[in-house]
Design a protein that fits this description.
The protein has 310 residues and is an alpha+beta fold. It has two domains: 2-211, Lambda Exonuclease, Chain A, CATH 3.90.320; 225-272, no CATH class. 43% of the residues lie in helices and 15% in strands. The protein has helices spanning 12-19, 25-31, 40-47, 60-67, 69-80, 122-129, 135-148, 173-191, 202-211, 226-257, 282-289, and strands spanning 2-6, 84-86, 89-93, 105-107, 112-119, 152-159, 163-170, 262-264, 269-271. Helix 3 (40-47) packs parallel to helix 9.
Length: 310
């Protein structure tokens, strides 16, 4: 059975709170490891309330995507001759109590949903030109098909300066079953407050830095992660060697360029142009005007991570 919670007259804070109660379409790619801006661990931290994600609704790219959603929907209708309407609701399916759907549009006279996208990413634009789209978008519309029980989904994407593309995605029961299993397993971790395995993404690093922002004076036994410490040391040595090799190749190129600010070959373009950077000379200022009062300084905290071999 499917029920709806209207988003009409819902405040932004209530909308965010409702969204955190279960897994949404845009979360599907993150928990599968398909979203480069999120990760299973960072998503888990958000859903458990350990990390409150920053409000990005006022960011230009987010506002642009929101404002142009209606345009993308209209372009899709023009291209296909189909009618679409706003959903204005959170949808819940009793068969998937861990999930919700918040589709951009429903397609009239058809068992289908429409997801509207805008992008300036050259990587995604190239995919669209080749008749492809990001895997995380596929996971998102599969999630909508799962929750809403619709037969198909449409993706419409406005590629800034490079055209308009739309795609039709048929329902795939095997894919939906696999997605449902993954989401059910993830939500079980959320309910048990048990984190998924960490990975090396920046999103996971950010989540860890936020959750454990404050250090305590205790010490722990690291025997259980000794192998990770050893591997880190090996990788650090490899990075050092590779950095030296990279620097050597750059030195060869720079010695050939001499004072030229640009260079080209059949496959590459190189820029080595003089730039100026202005910085505040605190010592000189204080010598002339006296010490800067403490109330003019912002205080920030960090936890530098250092490993020393014994």
């Amino acid at each position: 059975m499917i029920r709806k919670v209207s988003t009409l007259n819902m405040s932004h804070e209530d909308w965010l709170a409702e969204r955190r109660k279960s897994i949404g379409g845009s979360d599907a790619g993150a928990l599968l490891g398909l979203n480069k801006y999120s990760s299973p661990y960072s998503l888990w931290a958000e859903k458990t309330g350990k990390v409150i994600p920053p409000d990005i609704s006022d960011k230009e790219a987010v506002r642009l995507g929101h404002d142009l959603e209606d345009y993308v929907a209209k372009r899709f209708a023009e291209e296909t001759g189909k009618s679409v309407r706003r959903a204005n609701s959170f949808f819940y399916n009793s068969a998937y109590p861990f999930a919700h759907a918040l589709p951009d549009r429903m397609v009239a006279h058809e068992s289908a949903v429409l997801e509207c996208k805008t992008t300036s990413s050259w990587e995604i634009i190239k995919q669209c030109r080749e008749g492809k789209f990001p895997d995380q978008w596929y996971a998102q519309v599969m999630h909508y098909q799962m929750v809403l029980g619709v037969a198909k989904a449409y993706l419409a994407c406005l590629c800034f300066g490079h055209g308009f593309y739309w795609f039709e995605i048929e329902r795939d029961e095997a894919e939906i079953a696999a997605l449902a299993a993954a989401e059910r397993e993830f939500w079980d971790l959320v309910q048990r407050q048990s984190p998924p395995p960490v990975d090396g993404t920046e999103a996971t690093q950010d989540a860890l830095r936020t959750i454990y922002a404050e250090s305590s004076e205790r010490s722990v036994d690291l025997s259980a992660v000794e192998s990770a410490l050893k591997m880190r040391g090996i990788i650090e040595g490899q990075i050092k060697d590779l950095t030296e090799q990279k620097n050597e190749q750059e030195a060869i190129i720079q010695s050939w360029m001499a004072d030229a600010e640009r260079g080209e070959s059949a496959l590459y373009k190189v820029s080595w142009k003089t730039q100026e950077r202005r910085t505040f000379d605190r010592k000189a200022w204080e010598k002339d005007h006296g010490a800067i009062p403490d109330n003019y300084f912002k205080v920030s905290k960090s936890r530098p991570f250092k490993v020393t071999a014994r």
